[in-house]
Design brief:
The chain is an alpha/beta fold and 424 residues long. The chain has helices spanning 17-36, 50-53, 56-72, 86-95, 116-126, 143-160, 162-167, 179-187, 207-215, 220-232, 236-250, 266-280, 302-307, 346-363, 378-399, 410-419; strands at residues 5-7, 75-79, 106-110, 131-137, 169-173, 190-193, 255-260, 288-293, 312-321, 368-375. Helix content is 48%, strand content 14%. Bound molecules: 5-phosphoarabinonic acid.
């Protein structure tokens, strides 16, 4: 099967090969430290071997649980935030029909905000429906999913009865500790474990990502197979990407914009932002991860990227083959003067927009990296996830930070709890 590819030729006008090679050397040392388990944060390296270690038993258990819920429920609410949300959301969005032709229950997400309106509307939408809850929290104590779970469970028990509700709830959490583990055991919910040595943002290939993807009816075996395939490649792709972005960073390109030309990839970029932002942004260091959806945002952010501050570089994720084929029709009147496009595939217009934008942005001073995905499938997404995870860990190593902790996210929580009157 074809692998994703990386093209950084459009970075070379901005950094020379020696500079990239220097960062590649540092990256090699970081990769070695990851493989030997001597890097910072080395108690969180479980993700490295995860794809190859997921056994038949675990995959079958996830599929069986998803199948059971798919039969019973018309909607499943996946409750989680950050690493307990974005990977699953990325795959479900990428694989779903944009206009909601579901082949099973509708999978929706909650617990990733504390908006009263969002929760109210969700509960109103679920009124009278048979719904399931897949609640995901490694710590089992995160405020956003915990509040959402309280509300959802209350409504589910009121609608379905306590006994039936138990069969419609699945919890994914730590094997022993945390409030969610305690209530899952007490109530007898089905449970899956998030391994101790896998942090939230590296957990997409654990039940955290796999169960919601299976609930939505997508192929978790292909997702895992893609990651296994990427893990088997010698690491050069991830190493190159990490080296190139660090060479750019040292030259003052401090913001990386991940670009897609397919709105289905919007949440892949959100997942990527969390991965790199939480892993690298510490000790006053790190490339700021941003994202845009093109061509949509060419009509808004395109101006800034072309002519604003010159501290940006772009990484385009380009999907080589769309799923479907559609031609631009001829128009007898040709009022819009677009008949020169008639008979061309819509994707050809998209690809030429991509190429034209790439040329313009490079000319305007924005270095450009390009990742090519052969097609938008579970298999390619699995490759992409593993490629990025490894690159992020290497990149963190080059920067000299611990890519597996997130001490900075505690500050807002302390203030919020104090303001809400929590007793110490
Ligand atoms: O990457 C991380 O570790 C975080 O983003 C967590 O995933 C997020 O805070 C959710 O944590 P938990 O799964 O403990 O509810």
């Amino acid at each position: 099967m074809k692998r994703i590819e990386l093209d950084y030729s459009k970075v070379l006008p901005f950094v020379d090969t020696d500079e990239i090679n220097g960062q590649r050397e540092a990256g090699r040392a970081a990769l070695e430290a990851l493989r030997e388990g001597t890097c910072k944060g080395n108690d969180f390296l479980g993700w490295m071997d995860l794809p190859a270690e997921i056994g038949e038993e675990e995959l079958a258990a996830v599929e069986e649980c998803a199948g059971r819920l798919r039969e019973r429920a018309e909607v499943v609410v996946v409750v989680g935030i950050g690493g307990s949300y974005l990977g699953a959301k990325a795959v479900v969005e990428a694989m779903s029909d944009s206009f909601g032709a579901f082949s099973g229950p509708r999978v929706i997400f909650a617990g990733n905000n504390v908006s009263e309106d969002y929760m109210y509307e969700l509960l109103r939408y679920l009124k009278g429906k048979v719904f399931g809850i897949c609640v995901i929290s490694k710590s089992g104590t995160t405020t956003e999913p915990a509040v959402a779970f309280r509300l959802l469970r209350e409504q589910l028990e009121a609608q379905a009865g306590k006994e039936e509700a138990r069969k419609l709830i699945v919890a994914i959490t730590d094997k022993a500790k945390g409030a969610l583990r305690v209530s899952a055991e007490r109530e007898g919910y089905a449970t899956f474990v998030i391994p101790d040595n896998v942090g939230g943002r590296y957990s997409v290939l654990t039940p955290v990502g796999l169960l919601p993807v299976a609930l939505a009816g997508f192929d978790i075996r292909s997702l895992v197979a893609g990651a296994v395939d990427m893990r088997a490649c010698p690491g050069d792709l991830s190493l190159d990407y990490a080296a190139v972005r660090n060479a750019l960073y040292r030259k003052g390109f401090t913001t990386e914009i991940t670009v897609n030309y397919n709105p289905k990839l919007h949440y892949v970029a959100e997942w990527w932002k969390q991965l790199f932002g939480e892993s690298e942004g510490k000790e006053n260091k790190g490339i700021f991860p941003a994202s845009v959806d093109f061509t949509t945002d060419l009509h808004s952010m395109g101006q800034y990227i072309q002519q604003g501050r010159r501290d940006l570089f772009e990484t385009v994720i380009s999907v080589e083959r769309p799923r479907y084929e559609l031609l631009v029709p001829e128009d007898a009147e040709n009022l819009d003067k677009l008949n020169f496009l008639a008979g061309k595939r819509v994707d050809e217009v998209n690809k030429m927009a991509e190429l034209g934008t790439r040329m313009a942005h490079v000319e305007g001073g924005v270095p450009n990296i390009r990742i090519v995905m052969p097609e938008l499938t579970e298999y390619c997404l699995g490759q992409l996830f593993y490629f990025y995870e490894l690159a992020c860990a290497i990149s963190g190593g080059i920067l000299g930070v611990n890519a597996f902790d997130q001490p900075g996210v505690e500050a807002y929580k302390r203030n919020m709890f104090k303001l809400l009157g929590k007793q110490e």
